[in-house]
Structures are given as C-alpha cells and as structure tokens.
Amino acid sequence: MAIAFGLALVSLGAIVWCTVAARPVAGPARPESSAAPNPWVAAAARADPLAAWARRATTEVLVTSAGSGDLEPVPEGRIDPRQRQVKVTVVHRLRMDTDDTLVESLRRGSGFPGTLRQVTDAVFGAVRVGGPGLAPTTRLAPVLTSDSSTTTAKFTVTLLRQLEMESLLTLDFARPNAFPLIVTSRSIAVRPGEWTVLRIEGITPDREEEDRLEFGVGAYPVSMALAPDSFGFPDVVVADDFSWATALGVLTAVGLVVFLLRSLGQGWWQRLPNRELVVGLALAAPALLIPLFAKDWSPVAYVILFVAVPLLALRHAGRMLPTSPPWDTRDLLVVTGLGVLVGLGMLSWSWLHGQLPGQALVAGGVVAAVAAAGSAVAFSVDLGVRPVIVRLAALSAEAAVGLLALALWLRALLDGVYPPDSIRLVLALGWAMIPVAAVAVATKQWRRGAVAVAVLASLLVQGWPTEWLDAGSWSLDVPQPDVPTIGSLVLDPIVRGVLGLLLLGFVMLVLRLRRLGGGPAAIDNPVAESTMIAVLMVLYITPGGSTTLADIDVPLPLLAITSLVAWATARWLLTGPRLVLTEPATQEEHRLLIRAALHTRLLHVSEQELYRIGRGRLGAGELSMADFDRHRHALETALREHGRHPETAFATAAGCPPWLNGVHAFTVSLLLSLPFAIVYGLPEGVDLTSFVFDSRYLVTLPAFGFLFGYFYPRIRGTQPMTKALHLTAAALLTELSGYLSTLVEPDIGAVDKAQVVGIVVGQVMMVCIGLGLFWEWRIMHLAGEPWARVRNLRSIRSLAAPTLALVLAAGTTAATSAAGQTVDRILKGDQVTSAPR
Questions:
Q1: Position 143 pLDDT exceeds 80
Q2: Quick one: average pLDDT of 92-109?
Q3: Does 30 have pLDDT greater than 60?
Q4: Phi, psi of 310, rounded to the nearest 5 degrees
Q5: Which of 278, 574, 665, 751 has its CA 20 to 30 A from that of 427?
Q6: Which residues face 153 on adjacent strands?
C-alpha cells in the first residue's frame, strides 16, 4: 500500500510540476495590413506644400432609380420589389497643373486597382450612402485629360441601395484622410433626381435649386438626408395598439403549451421525479436570459445550461430507470482512450505554442502515466487476476495523461490564451449528457449506441465539422471571432445550446409517438392525438421578427398563422363522422375482411350491370322477365348475406400498428416531396439546429402524411382516395395560409401570385394523391390481393386521380422553370443566416 500511494503521489506531482512550470502563451499577432501603401499620400508629402492650394477638387453626386441593367450583378432573390432600388453615381474630378508630382504618380497607377479606394478617400473623402447594399461598390478606372497647362483626373464610383418606400436616403461626405492635405477645399454638387433635400448639416449652399444643390466644403464632414418625392409624411401617425402578429403569437403559444401538457398525460404528472424535473427546468429557464440583461453575469447562464441542467437530467434518468447503467471496465477504457486522444491535441498545442518545452512535456507525461499505472498495479496485485490488473493499469495511465492535458488547458484558460474551440468542445460534451439521459428515459434502458449518437449530435449542435476543423480553431484564441447569426440572433454557445434543447424536445415528442403507437389503442388515445398536433404546430412555427426587451433587440418567434391552421385542419381531419369499423387484429383477419369487401363490391357492380344490360335485352326479347327477376333475386339474396362485410374494410389500419403505418406514409410523402426541393432550394445552416430548422419545408407535408397513416381509421372518408382528398384539403389550406399576407400584397403582380399558388397546389396534390394511391396498393398488398381488383388501369375513370396529380406536377415544373426573383423570394423567404467563420 505504501508503494501504491507513493507512486500515486509521484504521478500527481509530475502533473502539478508541469502545470506550475507552464508559461503563459503569447497572444495571436495582429495581422498586418495587406493593402498597398497609398501612392498619392507619399507623393503629396514630397510635393511643394503650396501645390495643394493650386489643385481643385469637385464631386458630383447623381441619385437615380436603379434599372434592370444596373441590377444584373445583384444576387438572385435579394431584390425586394416592394422597396426602392436606388443607384447613386459619384463622379470625382481633380484638376492639377501638368507638372504636379501627383500626375506622374497617377499615370504609373501604383497599386491600381487595389488602391483606387484609398486614392479617392485620401483626396475627396469617402461618400457613404445609407441603407442596405444590394451589391458591392464599384469603381471605374480613372480617366485623365490634359492640355498644355492642366491635367484633370476623373474617378467614378457607383453604389446600389435598397430602401423602404418611406425611408430617407442619407448621404455622408467624410473629410479627406490624407495628411498633409492633398487639396484644401472641395466643391460638391448633388443632383437628387426623384428625391428632395430634406435636411443638411454643416454647410451653406452656394447654389440651391430644385434639381441641384452646390456647396463648398473644407476638411470637415458633411451630411444630408433626401426624401422621396412620391411619399408624403402624415401630420399624425396613428399607432396601432393591436397587433395581429402578437395576438396570433400569444394564441399559438397558449395552444402549443396546452397540447404539450396534454401530450404528457395525467399519469406522467403523477410521478414525483417528473414533477421535480419540471420544477428544476422552470428554475433554470429564467437564468438563461441573463446574457440579455447583464453580459458580465453570462458565466452563470453557461454553468446552469452546461453543468446544472445535464446533472439534473442524469439524476432524473437515474431515478426513472429501473437499472443502473451497464458500464464496465471496457467502456471506461474506451472513454478514457478517447479522452487521451483529445488530451494529446491539447498537449500538442502546449508544445507548439511554447506553453511547456517539448522535453519537459514528454518527461512529465511519461512519469505521470508510468507512475499511475504502477500505482494501479500495486493496489490490485493482491487480486491475482491478470486481466483486471492490466485493465486498471491502462485505465490509470490514460487518466493521468488526460488529467495532465486538463491541467494545462485550465492553466491556459487562466492566462487568457487558449485554443478557441476548446471551450466549445467542453461545453458540447457537457451538454451531451442531456440527450443521453433523455434517450435513456424514452427507451427505458441505457444504450452505448445512444451515448455515441448523443455526443455526435451535441458536437453538431455547436457547429459543423468544417467549423470545428477550421485552421484557426485550434491555434490561438481570436480576440473577436466572427460568430454566425440567424437574423439578429447571435449563435454563441449558449444560444446554440438552447436551440439544441428545443430540437431535443421535438425529438422527444416523436419518440413519444413511437412508444404510444405500438398498439391499435393509440388511434383513439387523446394523448397521442395531442402529441401529433403539437408536432405539427412546431413544424409550422415561423420566426417573423423581433421585439425590444430592456432596450435589447430580442428575436422572438412571432408564431405564424400556419401553426394555428395546422391545429385546426388536423382537428378537422380527426373529428369527422366515425364509421363502425371492425379492426383486424392480424394480417389474416385483414385478408378475410378485404376478400369479403371485394365480394360485396363485385355483387354491387353485378347488380348495376344487370340493370344496365337488362333494359336492352328485355326490349329485344333476348331475356324474359322471369329470368331477369330470378337473377335480380339471386343478387339481392347474396347482398343480404354479405352485407355484414361492407367496404369499410378499406378504412381500417390493416392489422398494422399506428406507428408502422405512420412511418410508411411519412416515407412515401417525403419521397414525393423531394423533387420540389429544386423549387425551394436545398436547406442550409451553420449547425445541426439551424439546418434542421431550415429543412422544415421538406417534412411539413410528410408530417401530414404521418398523421394520415398514424390515425388512418379516424381520417374523414371511407376509402384511401376519399381520405386522401380530405387530407389534400387540410394540407392545402395549411400550406397556402403561410403565403396569405403575400398573396394580398398589392405590389406583387397577379402572375407571380398565380405561380406561387400553382407551385403550392401542385406539390400538395402530388403528395396527397400519390399517398392515397400508395395506400390503396398497400391495403391490397397486405391482403395478398392484386391492386387491379380495385383500380383498373384500363379505365379512364380509374385513372382520373393519378392523371390529375401528373398534370399538376407538370404544371408545377413549368411554373418553377418560369419563376422569377419575386416568386423565389416569396417561396424561399429572406436569407438571414450568415456564413460560418
């Protein structure tokens, strides 16, 4: 025991020595400017100081509407036809003596075109135009004109802006940034065109006309604002105290909360651990808002989300599961081995950046690992079991290396210079405990595969592999990294963690449907119905803006009307007239019911055929009345005998559990929806959560298909195709409700609106009618009967439904190929996700 404790102290001492001997790492060197030096500033410094008084600088600003030719370089979908597209053309002219040193410098074009901006800003000062830019600022090559005594240089700059109809256009003329000054005075002329100068600051005009404003200015800034001629400002702005967006948002939030509570069921609330979990999460939720109000207290929110909530989830899982996790020594070896791999990355960083010399690092690591392994051997040698001794030795050595890497990481953290993504890695591993516990509770068992998937998912929640493997992610800390955003929502680790929790909650709802859908009782289970409606409402939630909370612009999901319509249409589908059904318990019972229904259908068709041909044959004398009555009585007797087997057999679950039916319907609907991805574009995102959120349009209609399959016996209708038509009405109303505000927009043309409606209708009809046809085939396939017995492909009437679907799909394809920027913007929405760093 003395030897064992002594070796343990040696291992710990090696780790402590390495940590104490580690030096602070120098911060990253600031990148040197790659821009070429301004040639005119150097030339002006060499010129005669009196030459600046002889130069004359003029600037002319022309404001016009941007034409189609001007907007060609603008990325597709960025132009909003409901706003103004403005073109601002700035023409600078500098008049100099022919022997001026700047003329020769300009002719050499040192650094052009890279230094064009520097030249114009140094001589004339930068011209800034307010409003979002449609395209980068462009600069033409300078034009020189000379005579016997003077030379004039002309610089042309073009800027494109997009403004709201009532917005003002601001022009800011900055002071020249050259020292010494290249020119002592400037003359500026503004031609507003369809705009009117509303206010000016810092100048007295030399010439003031309706279509031209001229003024002289020195080395100081000037600003002005222009108002559109076609817009009048009201004397009194009537504030609308009632907001439909807010009202719908509150109503949707209340409805969603109600369905979420109902989806848990009364039995869930009766368990004490569940109530404790709800209380713990309710106490933790307000703390996550701390970064919005007090930046200095943000670490508290990080501790709660990445430490307290994972521990709460693990405690809840430990109390809910009947058995402890089945982890053994082999599992510990694998986990610590992975920890060693991560630790080697940190040790490599420590060596590369001089935190600790290589020899000292290797010596300290080897001593710590060997001493820890020897200590483990000394502790376990009395057991006499060689495999156990070897495993404990390996486990101790791995733990020592991992502890050394952790100690050096903490030292780098205290010194303020550390691998940038190392903190995100630690936070992701801590957050991974939440899905591990959630999946364990949902499946009622601990699984190694679930742990691996949860860790991988948590890493993807914090960023894509391209972001994790960025060249600068594991070098030196970046003082101000470019953090991706969604709109105005900055995706820092805590925001990504909260969004990941929301995504996890949605996954838990789907897993709950899986657990409830194992038996036919789920079809009439109100808990399953509430869960399904909650899933639909979540899929149709759309962020619509932001609100101001404590002087902070906070993005909020102003819940779209589509979520409410999805709720209403789902209820409409599930609350229709109920048929008296005989649900088959097995596939054999389903086969017998289908055969009986086919027999009944055959008798009905035979009776109709008897009346159809009997009229002609009776009149021609080919059939006697006695024979006709005999055939009729025989058919009626057969119908009375088989009347207890109506065709409602096609409205049953076919002996399959609801979850299996739902998965089949979802898969078919998804396959039918995938071709329409060319209309909406492929989903994008900077991490797993934003990618899943952006791909909702691919699963909203398949979610209706899942509802169709899961609750198939309750869907309105008696046959697969009639049920599919009711599903079409519900899905079409829900999908079109998302474009309601756009379709009533007067600034959008009727052709664009018709294209949008055609694309949505085509997609819904294609998915729903295709699902109905598949379901008809599936019912017959499960019964072992050919599909041709219910749908004759040689009959025009039988082909009406698929023909309609194909025609609409072809029309949708044509509309897609003809869709312009307006239609693309309506269908895809504004692109608000920035690229990752």
A1: yes
A2: 83
A3: no
A4: -60, -40
A5: 278
A6: 94, 144
Strand partners for 225:
170, 199
**What residue type is 38 in one-letter code?**
N
Residue 509 in contact with residue 535, Cβ under 8 Å?
yes
Percent of the chain that is helix, strand, coil (3-state, to 5): 60, 10, 30
pLDDT at 815 exceeding the cut of 60 = no
Rounded to whole angstroms, how far apart are CA atoms 72 and 140? 17
Adjacent-strand bridge partners of 224: 171, 200
What is the mean pLDDT of the segment spanning 61-69? 90
Q: What's the token pair of residue 47?
A: 């010129």
Alpha-carbon 158 to chain mean position: 34
Q: How many CB atoms lie within 10 A of CB 473?
A: 18
Please give the Cα distance from 40 to 389 (Å, whole number).
Answer: 77
Residue reference for tokens 């979802």: 666
User: Mind giving me the DSSP string for 534-602?
Assistant: HHHHHHT----EEEEETTEEEEE----HHHHHHHHHHHHHHSSPPP-----SSHHHHHHHHHHHHHHHH
In 3D, which of 585, 653, 591 has the Cα closest to residue 785? 591
92 DSSP β-pair partners? 59, 155
Higher pLDDT, 596 or 550: 596
Name the residue among 493, 575, 463 with its Cα closest to residue 529: 575
Residue-range domain boundaries for the chain: 52-228, 327-418, 568-828
What is d(CA 309, CA 306) in angstroms, rounded to the nearest whole number? 6
Asked if the bond preceding 113 is cis, omega within 30° of 0, the reply is: yes
Q: Are the C-beta atoms of residues 578 and 714 closer than 8 Å to each other?
A: yes
Tell me, what amino acid is at 364?
G
Alpha-carbon distance of 127 to 143, in angstroms, equals 20
3-state secondary structure 402-435: HHHHHHHHHHHHHHCCCCCCHHHHHHHHHHCHHH
pLDDT in tens, 448-495: 888 899 999 998 888 888 777 765 667 775 444 566 666 556 778 888
Q: What would the two tokens of residue 98 be?
A: 């022919």
Confidence (pLDDT) at 230: 77
Distance (Å, whole) CA 413 – CA 346: 12
pLDDT in tens, 655-706: 889 999 999 999 999 998 888 777 667 777 778 888 888 788 788 899 999 9
Rg (CA), the chain: 37
In degrees, rounded to 5, the angle at the alpha carbon of residue 740 between the alpha carbons of residues 735 and 744 is 150
pLDDT category, 229, cuts 50, 70, 90? confident
Average pLDDT of the segment spanning 425-440: 90
Q: Map tokens 């395209």 to a residue.
A: 135
Contact partners, residue 346, CB within 8 Å, separation at least 6 = 405, 406, 408, 409, 419, 422
Alpha-carbon gap, residue 47 to 49, rounded angstroms: 6
Tell me how far CA of residue 166 lies from CA of 131, 195, 227, in angstroms.
Answer: 12, 12, 8
pLDDT tens figures, 438-447: 988 888 888 8
Q: Are 293 and 418 in contact (CB under 8 A)?
A: no
What is the 3-class SS of 683-730, one letter each residue? CCCCCHHHHHHHCHHHCHHHHHHHHHHHCHHHCCCCCHHHHHHHHHHH
| Nearest residue to 61 (alpha-carbon basis) of 186, 191, 187 | 191
What angle (nearest 5°) sits at the alpha carbon of residue 525, between those of residues 521 and 530?
A: 145
What is the identity of the amino acid at 767? V
pLDDT for 358 equals 85
Distances (CA, A) of 435 to 269, 487, 598: 21, 27, 49
Q: Please give the Cα distance from 410 to 408 (Å, whole number).
A: 5
Mean pLDDT of 223-241: 74
- At 264, is the pLDDT very low, low, confident or very high (cuts 50, 70, 90)? confident
